[in-house]
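hey m, so remember when u said the tokens were messed up on ur end? i reran from scratch. heres the input so u can diff it against urs
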Amino acid sequence: MEVTARAPGKIILAGEHAVVHGYTAVASSIDLYTVVSLRLRSEDEDTVKLKLNDIGLDFSWSVGRIKEVLSHLGSPFSSTPTSCSLETIKSLATLVDEQSFPETKIGLASGVYAFLWLYTSILGFKPATVTVSSELPVGAGLGSSAAYCVSLSAALLALSDSVKLDVSQKGWSTFKETEAELVNKWAFEGEKIIHGRPSGVDNSVSTFGNVIKFKSGVMTRVDSNMPLKMLITNTKVGRDTKALVANVSARKSRHPDAMCSVLNAIEAISDEWSTIIQSHAVDDLYLSANEEKLGELMEMNQGLLLSIGVSHASIENVLQTSMKYKLASKLTGAGGGGCVLTLLPTHISGEVIDKLVEELGSFGFQCFSAGIGGKGVQISFDYSS
């Protein structure tokens, strides 16, 4: 039997950077997924294999070697998520170092640590093949690592004794609330291995889907009633998130009153975003009016982000290009490069979108459209494998 889990990526609709200083941000799932397929192997095969299809990396460990290095973990404890200790990180590093890891991709090693930790913690020392594929670009601020951890945790838990699933159901199915919470907690532990001190927003959005408001560590789930679609443009410009956050903090120290006003304005935009998307469109005119309001909020939000120093020439290229087509855009995430969101109103034609994508492509940017506010992690079973 093969179990497959898929988990969505995420975007920040409003409130990036302000959220670091205790203000509200709004994040949403997008219908671009990371997919993890897990097939248990017969005991005599004695290997655990990890295949990362999109980056062309394959790993294989004997179960005996994993037991030898991680013997201190003991029995699996799938129902009780715990943090990975520094001692265990060193042990995981030993297992990864034994593999032929390309120097150019060494930054992805923490994702393999997370795999080994989640696998042994939830399923123990069972031989299996795990295959990962994703529609999400790595390092673009779209929650690729969270989607990886969520889908991996979901697939592992589906074969544990901690969740009860209807394995006879065909197609994609969802977890019950308490079981989804367990997936989310394990995924957060994986995120901690990869990022150190993540906020928990990315894995929560990926697990539960739809929209989340986040303020001072408190997350509130929001049910969106608007069928919104975004064009996501990946500028492919790398950015130093820590440096961008530090620069905003420094600007806040130099100009406390002005920055307070800016951050308050960003929070007001976040609050209005969540109010609008929860409203029910009574007709097409009402929907168009709300889309226009959201477009204006995006433009205002981008202007405020520019004022705190987190835009970039590549982002401005996207903004100027989308403006030609009378479409609203804003950066998403840390800024300084990364990805830009462009709201695609329901009335826009496919021809216009194609022209916009072609023009943005001339800059070397990568574009893809995505619906927002969809379902979170899902699971399916295949008995033909």
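this time it looks ok to me. The two ends are 6 Å apart (CA to CA). if urs says something different then somethings off w ur setup not the seq
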